[in-house]
Fold:
Amino acid sequence: MQGLSRGLVMFAIAALGIAAYKVEAQRPMPPPPAVSASAAVTAPVLQVKGAEVPVQLRHASLHGTLAAGLAETRIELEFHNPNSRILEGQLEFPLADGQQVAGFALDIDGVLRDAVPVPKAQGRQVFEAIERRRVDPGLLEQTAGNQFRLRIYPIPAHGSRRVALTLRQTLPVDTQDLRWTLPMQFAHGAQQASVQLDASGSGAPRASNAMPWDFQLRDGRYQLQWQGRGAELPVQAQWILPQVRQRDVVAGLHEGQRYLMAQIPVPVQTVQRAMPTRIGLLWDASGSAAQRDRVAEFAVLDRYFKAIADGQVELTVVRDQPEATRGFRIRGGDWSALRAHLQALPLDGASALGAWTPQSGVQEYLLVSDGLSNYGNRNQPALAAGQRLYALSGAGARTDVARLRAWTAPHQGEVLVLSTPADVPAAAARLLQQGAAVISLEGDGISGLVADAGAAAQGWLRVLGRIEKPDGSVQLRVRLPDGRIDAQRVSAGEARLLPGGLVAHAWANGQLADWAGDPVAHTAARRTLSQAFGLVGADTSLVVLESIDDYLQHGIRPPPPLRAEYDRRHALATVDVARERSERLDDIARQFADRQRWWETRWPKGTPPQAKEEKPSPTAVAMAAPSAAVEAFEARPNDSVTAPPPPSPAPAPAPPAPQAMLARQAPGPHAERAASAPSAANSGEITIALAPWAPDAPYATRLRAASADALYPLYLSERAQHADSSAFYLDVADLLLAKGQRALALRVLSNLAEMQMENRHVLRVLGYRLMQAGAPALAVPVFRDVLAIGEEEPQSFRDLGLALEASGQYPQALQALYEVVLRPWDSRFNGISLIALDEANTLMAREGLDARAIDPRLRRALPLDLRVVLGWDSDNSDMDLWVTDPNGERAYYGNRLTYQGGQMSQDFTGGYGPEQFSLRDAKPGTYKVEANFFGSREQLVTGATTLSLRLSTQWGTRQQRDQMVTLRLKDQAESVLVGEFTVK
Structure:
């Protein structure tokens, strides 16, 4: 993925800038060139943003133990901040297939405190909430595939922080050996480093690459100890451990429950399988493909097509959208035409791996991809009975092996991962040979059986389960490559007890791997299992908090040293959720009643009295609130509201029929109101003119000058210089749309999904641009991702609701919008609920939706002549919406009610918005819409704040017209003209 650094591990420290506003781009690293996968495992890259002196890795220690093919490594790191200000740390790293984070600890008051598992969304919410208070949270989460991110705050000025990671792994096997790979790259940059390893239950470990030290046999175990500078360590260290080809059965405990793991030898047979003659090649050409070793992948394909000799290949290129299938003929193993076509493909766009459609005539599919699906449809397409599916990845440790294995296993296939060019022969052999297959697995007194058949071709089968009875057993039947059936029985009674949680965690990881193919269907089960075992995964993170009060506030049960005190205090502080929601609805009902009083008031449409005497400057008009109008609005009860005395008073309108506001009608609620009230202030003709806006970057000038056909090739040539800039992709997509290249524009735009894994700010921008481009069906899954990441932010529900509405999913849209109304939110989000309620009521009225789930006090649509809504992508930022009416009066946060009744919503100073301008009856004339960048404390993800504005005329009626625009503001106090309404 593009957000990863060139190395295996990236540690990015960014100064927070708490006291002052800052505008600084938070950019992902550009993708590396296509290189050999052997270069993918490198020393950690330590980067510092906003710090005068780099943060130092003072000490690193690795302590590894191995038994029964199961390994555990504890990594302790000490970081020192030599700067005079507090820093936040972020460590991103992938792990190899089979490795899993099973523990995390952070020093609090000098003592390492173990993290506890929490739902993933809650972990991030708690971290960011506590971080704002400048105390000590730590968070470890999985991002995509087997990629992880560790966040630490604060690293004190002239101080140090210690962290500890615990990794567990089921070792891969060869015919006679185990392979133990140590993550030495964590310690390579340390000023001081130490390594301590302990292996039992196997033969003497031998190094697979040159290393300066050896294991020594002591007390029946092989041990290794070393100390020195981190630079003296190899970046990668792997040992080969001989094992006897005999059954090995072990058991382990977890919270009183016993678990079993059996390693069972099966006969090794080398049988060439019957090769297909019609193959479906699924080639992932997304942006992240640049990080795959395509040279090694081609080497495997060389052997594959040579074995096929003559056949037909149906090629489907998958990116953000699948391309039309294209046929290639293979003759005598010659696939040069197909190879040349693949080499010429641009690697661009997001990864929608589930978007292709299987063809009935294809015998076997081969998916060449890293498996990281981040866009559109992500579920595996349904293959026909008998169709095989293999997966090949040159991405090494960056491969989402769990997803690919779950896809291939039910279809007689395998996952072939290339970590180095040396893996090519073995991978090709597995692709060409017929492997053993488990045909039945039954337990008597042993439940939750999981079989890891991936190593069956190497002569080994691992079976794991949960022991329910001491004399429980497992019966398994394996079909060998030559067709014979190998049947075996494993008894729990033959297991020897292995201390620690290695066996239990191996079983839990096996269950999670089984569910990886359809994660949505198993969300609840995965979350329950991950939290029970403390495993970092797609649904669970590990968090460390500073004080018992922090754990109590967020309802997180702390580790044992604090647990008794937590349990005592938690019992006294139960929260009545139903009461909170009831009080919330009462408050919203009061606010909505105030808005209805504003809507029912007939505001003056003449010239303000002060304008007859003198013509004030725009600044003076903007700063002078119309006090008479405000007092009239706020002081009078609902049934007796009148406007301030206008030059020519107009009677108040008759109230609209309540039932009309919720029923589908041809004229629309706005038309009915006008028919029953005095004549409107305008003739009903309202138009929108958007101001031209274009980026001023040099690349944008070059791209604008290109012809439509030359624009995309020019973008590809420019991309290497701007691959770390999301603004670049936004600008190019706009230019492609303007020149009629819609499909390419959407492809370029989708790159935002590849840039930073699980960055909700970037994904929000992507969703807004997809909505602006008229692609709500593509925006819906993007906003679902945003909601999964940022459920504590009401904008996540509102954005999803509006996208669902635009895609025609009206009941689901109403549910999402009403959630914004119902939930209690942080005080910095005050004001959004009324905006979402307006949108929900308008949706119900227009589509005739069932309103019984909505509180009766809130069921009324309030149509408007003019409506403007401003939102933005950056947290901790203050943007302002300005609307200047024909009177020369500006509506903004300091003047929320204009003389003619224009209403501005509450000011959002902490991020995202929205801010809304509403006007029921628009006075004829021109209305100027502007956006102003007041300030930011956020390090902006696009190099600027991206604004999203929706301008609507006759909003809430059948005649409603909307125009959306997105633009970027870079500098504080910058304002930009968005467009104008013209009312006749």
